[in-house]
Write a structure and sequence with these properties.
Strand content: 25-35%
Number of helices: 5
Strand order of the largest sheet: 1-2-4-11-6-7
Number of strands: 15
Distance between the termini: 32 Å
């Protein structure tokens, strides 16, 4: 069914209001000296180096950890990346365990890349206070030119508090030639902000059954359609005549 010109205009205005409202919330939360100080202590990336030593047989092993966002809100996804490489040796990685932040559920996906090619999805199984991937055969050969990369994606739980920071508890690598390493301080950090208007509307839509699996509104219409139709109904009813005349 085609929509009248006035409905299209009001819908566009409603969509614009969402964008502007979201920008206002995000900018307001990030202001102030406290936010600047927090940014200095909350780092997305960290690195550790091991060797060259007798244990590594002269090789130097490097471990990098990062998260894909500076700040996000509850209900959104974040992806952690762990990269293990080695220079001067031919170690084999047999397992990687990572410890997500407190309150996080199991990862929704995990993907491994090694030997210069994609190994594809891999299962991360519960292991104590974290989740572990293990090689099914001999392990994964690691070199400086062909590092091992693990990417795990989690959903930020609803229990997080806006204005706080979230830090994981590092990794533990199993393997040969001294590449095994327990690294609880190899962490990544991001901040929690308030949801912007668009995220809040979609969250309400999901909770009330209006959302879809793709994160969009269902066949009932888009956010701007729903707001636009509601505003037009009010205008056409004449309820605003006494106010705007």
């Amino acid at each position: 069914m085609s929509r009248s010109p006035i409905r299209r205009v009001v819908a566009a205005a409603a969509a614009g209001a969402l964008v502007l409202g979201g920008a206002t919330v995000s900018l307001g939360l990030g202001a102030g000296a406290a936010g600047a100080q927090e940014a200095q202590t909350c780092s997305q990336t960290s690195q550790a180096v091991k060797g060259p030593t007798l244990e590594t047989i002269g090789a130097t092993h490097t471990y990098d950890r990062s998260v894909n966002t500076v700040e996000t809100t509850a209900g959104q996804q974040v992806t952690y990346k762990t990269v293990v490489s080695s220079k001067g040796g031919l170690p084999v990685v047999t397992s990687i365990k990572e410890v997500p932040p407190t309150g996080f559920a199991a990862p929704v996906s995990a993907r491994l890349t090694y030997n210069g090619g994609a190994a594809g999805p891999i299962q991360a199984l519960p292991d104590g206070n974290g989740y572990k991937i293990s090689a099914s055969a001999l392990g994964w050969l690691v070199t400086s030119g062909k590092p091992l990369t693990l990417e795990t994606t989690y959903v930020v739980p609803e229990t997080v508090t806006p204005g706080s920071t979230v830090t994981d508890a590092g990794i533990k690598v199993g393997g040969t030639v001294g590449i095994d390493n327990d690294l609880p301080d190899l962490t990544s950090c991001f901040s929690i902000r308030l949801p912007n208007v668009g995220e809040a509307v979609l969250s309400v839509a999901d909770a009330t059954g209006l959302g879809s699996e793709e994160g969009q509104l269902s066949s009932t219409g888009s956010v701007s359609d729903i707001l636009g139709d509601a505003l037009v109904d009010v205008i056409e009813s004449g309820a605003l005549e006494g106010i705007i005349s």
